[in-house]
Amino acid sequence: MNPAQFWFQSGGYRISRSLRFNSADSAYLNRTPASAGNRKTWTWSGWVKRSAFGAINSVFECRAATNDSQTFGIEFGRFATSENYIGIILHTYYLATTNAQFRDPSAWFHLVVALDTTQATSTNRFKLYINGVEQAFSSVTYPSQNADLGINQAASHNIGNSNGVYFNGYLTEVNFIDGQALTPSSFGETDTITGVWKPKKYAGTYGTNGFYLNFSDNSGTTSTTLGKDSSGNGNNWTPNNFSVTAGSGNDSMIDTPTPYADGGNGRGNYATWNPLKKNSGVSFPNGNLDFSGPGSAYPVFGNIAMTTGKWYWENLVNSNDGGDYPQFGVVDLSANENDSSNLGAFRAIAYRRSGVIRKEGTDILSGRPTFTNGDVISVAFDANTGKVWFAKNGTWVNGSSGSAGDPAAGTNEVGSVSTAIQGYVAGGGGYSSATFSINFGQRSFAYTPPSGFAALNTQNLPEPSIKKPSAYMDVKLYSGTNASQSITGLGFSPDLIWFKNRTGTAYHGLFDSVRGRAAGLSSNVTDAESTSSAGNDLVSFDANGFTLGPVQNWNSTNGSGNSIVAWCWDESATPGFDIVTYTGNASNAARSVAHSLGVAPKLMITKGREAQVTGTDNWLVWHGSFGAGDFLSLNTTSAKSTSSSYWGNTVPTSSNFYVGGTSSNVHNESSKNYVAYLWSEVANFSRFGSYVGNGSSDGPFLHCGFRPAFVIFKSSSSGYDWFMFDNRRDPENVVDLALFPNSSSAESGGSTYMFDFTANGIKIRNSQLNLNGNGNTYIFCAWAEAPFKYALAR
Question: Are the C-beta atoms of residues 472 and 570 closer than 8 Å to each other?
Fold first, then answer.
């Protein structure tokens, strides 16, 4: 058993199946207890994976009558301002609505609601937890002491239905404990290797009306099979409008929050279509596994990128337009979901209904078998080589060689795509009359995958080189004291600390272990390095944090009463970070400076350490999406500029970066000292990308391959501020508290700069010109909280 398997299994604990709920099917479970249980004290726990947004979704409810004491529920939406808040409801109003919004369809999360109205303190009478963390409420009305509420009376209870309002998504590991108000630690725990919350088996008692639903028996859709209570109480539930028949209508899935090898497709969090990256006319019914398209051929995207490995999936044609559509294939992450030009920007390969193989807008093969309703089109993709194969009803079509494709042998592919581009996801397109169902392996495949090709789920993803990102990059929050204090809790000794006072106007402060604890720089000004006397500002880099002294130069480090954030990095090749100091030589040619990353950096930030003789000593930034002479200034709002004088007009390599020229402008003035911070891209840990804004609150989705901990944004095409966001100042969605590298301003936000951090990336939810102006180009630099293989939604 490998470490990742052990991590998810809680010492061998496995969740084998989940149940898909689809509102269009009016799917739900119901049960009426023979007698009332404890209506004052109970706990509901379950693992949830959402699939649809834009409507109320009911999770658990008893609706017995019109009076509030007899109706109680847990649901997304209704009387809240958005359907993405979780609410605790009585019949006509909310008892509570969460601050956080939950609209990440890419992964599972753990939901616990505990009720105990016997508590003397009102705030202890019910609690709601996500992934082990107690949630705050934006509005709350606590019930009176010893009140009997609706759950646990001898009346109809529903899972996934509230008076005709149904749930869309997946549920598993549902525990109801009658008579006890428990904490999440009864159902889950934090993994010591990854730091991520994971399921564990509940080992306590259930009480009279308690039950445990794991949906593991899919031999039928009765109360003794799919609805079986596995607690030992026999409190079975009646399934309504579910199917376990093989095919696209099967609601019994092996999509679970505990990945493990099972001798077949593998259990784990499975790929689905990604509703966060789609044209507005496209819809994904049935748990994001079906496709219905608009009157044009927009690409669609899965939510797991295939950057390495060999992958297999299937598409069932439900209806077609009689011409080219639907079509199936692979599409690059950078493709535009709003491109309707016959998938000309598909950036990959598609098999069209008419028997044509199309690559990047050009037909490259024809005369392959046509397909129609009821046909299954299989796709095999080798992300290591870029090769693609297609099969119709289990028979591989002829490749470009004219012979039948053989994915297992790696021969006779229909074509290949560039592996230099950042990953591919499953793609397809169709007209309004074309619909299809995709199967990534969460239900049985119709045909056996070729040898060496796997189903697309987290179990089968490669092991990340960094399983716990906070061991290499982390964010610390603390209060300044204007007196000596040690800040602990980091999982490493930091080599770069970037400080900022959140509550007041103050310079940024950057200190690193190469220049030494006393040498500070500020990103928002061109000033030379300042030196702190002993015992002031940053006193030391410590084994698990840092020590501060009384303030001298930077209120951003330890000013009394200030709320301060410190972004911290460990310097080594493992997390892809290097600190280099060098002395300028005024060379007009491309002057090489060695680094130790071992691969080409994707982000470089350089700064002069002392007063310059000529020019303006801006902070210079080069990003992996730039050309050789392109640069931004970290201390200004200026758009990207291009000059052959910068970076020696040469892109960095695996061993060197370049400077050139004679002035401080290009950071190579004779005898002057400089510092360079260099980051390479490390899969599942860091991502340096770009995007084009759409000017909508339904903004672009930025695939990272991890849940972000810290992100920097800048418009490269326009003169707007730099922005910084992180998971400590905003531990829940929506993320909107911004700081600005080019400004001494205090933190700002409050529904202005709105993002969601998801388990696999960033969803932009603002239409601000400085972050999402229509047609503007932006860069982003992101570091991980958790690799997608392990990450949970929230």
Answer: yes
Residue position matching structure tokens 């259990």: 267
8 Å CB contact between 348 and 329: yes
Looking at CATH, the fold of the domain delimited by 285-439 is given as Jelly Rolls (2.60.120)
Residue 593: φ, ψ to 5°: -125, 125
Task: Kindly calculate the radius of gyration of the chain based on its CA atoms and give it in whole angstroms.
Answer: 28
State the pTM of this model: 0.96
DSSP summary character for residue 285: H
Q: What is residue 78's predicted lDDT score, i.e. its pLDDT? A: 63
Alpha carbons within 13 angstroms on the beta-carbon side of residue 606 total 29
For residue 787, the one-letter residue type is P
**How far lies 423's CA from each of 680, 683, 693, 694, in Å?**
17, 11, 21, 22
Distance of alpha carbon 785 from alpha carbon 794, whole angstroms: 13
Tell me if 550 sits within 8 A of 538, measured CB to CB. no
pLDDT of residue 746: 97
- Is the fold of 3-242 the same as that of 285-439? yes
| Residues with Cβ within 8 Å of residue 400, at least 6 apart in sequence | 364, 365, 412, 413, 414, 415
Give the chain's mean pLDDT: 92
- Closest by CA to 430, choosing from 272, 279, 277, 275, is 279
Q: CA of 412: how far to CAs of 313, 396, 398, 425, 765, in Å?
A: 19, 10, 7, 22, 44
The token pair at 184 is: 């999440």
Contact 633, 619 (CB under 8 A): yes
Can you tell me the distance from the alpha carbon of 386 to that of 371, in angstroms, rounded to the nearest whole number?
24
Q: Evaluate the omega torsion of the peptide bond into residue 734 and state whether it is cis, within 30 degrees of 0.
A: yes
Position 50: which residue type? R
Domain boundaries, the chain: 3-242, 285-439, 469-569, 577-679, 686-787
- Which regions of the chain are under pLDDT 70? 1-11, 66-69, 78-81, 91-93, 294-297, 340-347, 421-422, 428-433, 613-615, 662-664
